[in-house]
Amino acid sequence: MQTLSEAIRRRALQAGDAIAVSDDAQTLNWRNFAARVLDMAASLQDSPRVIGLFAPNGTDWAVAQLACALAGKLVAPLPTFFSPQQLAHVVRDASVGLVLTTPETMPQATASGIAAELIERPPVRSDSFACVEGFGQIIYTSGSTGQPKGVRHESGQIAWSMTALANATQASVDDFYLSVLPLPLLLETICAVFIPALLGAKVHYATGLAERVGRGDARGLTTAFEEHRPTSSVVVPQLLKHWTAELSATGRTAPSSLRFVAVGGAPVSTRVADDAWRLGIPAYEGYGLSECCSVVAVARPGERRAGTVGRPLDGLSVKIDDNEIVVDGPTVMDGYLGQTGAARPWRTGDIGSFDADGFLSVRGRKDSMLVTAFGRNVSPEWIETMILGDARVGVCAVVGYGEPSLSALLIPSAEGAAWFARAREHDISDLVAGACVDAPDYACPRAVLVVPFDEAARAGLLSPNGRPRRAQISDFVKARSRATDAPVSGTAARR
Description:
Elements: H1 2-14, E1 19-22, E2 27-29, H2 30-43, E3 50-54, H3 59-70, E4 74-77, H4 84-93, E5 98-101, H5 106-111, E6 117-118, E7 136-141, E8 149-153, H6 157-169, E9 176-179, H7 186-199, E10 202-205, H8 207-214, H9 221-228, E11 232-235, H10 237-250, E12 260-263, H11 270-278, E13 283-287, E14 297-298, E15 311-312, E16 317-321, E17 324-328, E18 335-336, E19 346-354, E20 360-365, E21 370-371, E22 377-378, H12 380-387, E23 393-399, E24 407-412, H13 417-422, H14 425-435, E25 447-450, H15 453-458, H16 470-484
Parallel strand pairs: 1-10, 3-4, 3-5, 4-7, 5-6, 9-10, 9-11, 11-12, 12-13, 24-25
Antiparallel strand pairs: 1-2, 7-8, 8-18, 13-14, 14-15, 16-17, 17-19, 19-20, 21-22, 23-24
Helix pairs in contact: 1-2, 1-7, 2-3, 6-7, 10-11
């Protein structure tokens, strides 16, 4: 992280009065921002090796994240949307020796049984502070079972990724990044903290919005982009769909200041992506996973190709073996916490293919492949992405392993709840059939079950991070079908 340390010091000297970071409560220029980062890094030199960060999106998080990096610490981000049980598991599992927090999140830390200190530590003179190598990060995701699993990046993966991603996206000192995703997400950490610090670019952390997004609420997204007029940001597909729906409903377009909005974390519907571009959102799809430091491939500026996630980052080896995406290179993790080192090359478990120009397409997970009673193989993510292109659908899961035909469980979005409440059976069937018009007949769900979000949550159909639990959904759909002794919601007629 010596390069990062030098970049921060240099920017403070050259443009000390320029705004570096801001959030809903404060703004720091580069002189003050650099001083806080370096002072805190100096104060952390004798602290435990593993440090937890438990704070909302904001300038304090950025200061603590960078200070830990320069002090050579191993960081374990603690998402504020984790349950007390999950937080306790991460602190114990990662052997966290110090937790840094803010006054806003201190009560939550205390209630979760976490002993924490405020990020605003006593100042230490940093004039003679020298960057300490050895920075790393342990990334936890809530996962499909709710038990977080730690991914270790301790061998320079983050430093390599931030440089490669900055080059691929043509990021520069003139960028203004708007952070709307929770910072415990590694991709957001890289894009909202490390790349701007490396280049000397400006960042605004939309604190309240990011907290809501972490809990599945995107209200205020359109307003935030209009108010701040950034050049770049990162969103997940559900946020992109919400954004395009709001713009379409109000007859507006995205700010003309935008040059690059990365979209990742899940498959992106071509329909949603095309709508985004039509509405002025320069949405560039990408693909990655925690085990490969979040980014494997991304569409470059001016190179978007619908239905693909762009080309692999320069320097990564990405191949297709038996339809599976296999990655090797400097971003592959060291391993899962408490387990042996990661196998190389890393078999992602994702199904994909390259076109003649080297653009990667991702079709779904090998372990979620459905095989119908007629022997047809269907990737559920492929069909789900088509259906999720409709703004009225918030969550979709396609099931039917070993069945004559497939079924779809739909959870309405906030925008679509009213429509589903008054829709008749054939309206819902037409919605699904229309969304799947480009899929082969055998892959189109023949039965559709609509379940409100609250009911789905009570039935345990969603993970804590809102993703469908496929096994539970399959059992739920079968039980509902048996209870009614009929297809769960009729047959979707093909157009």
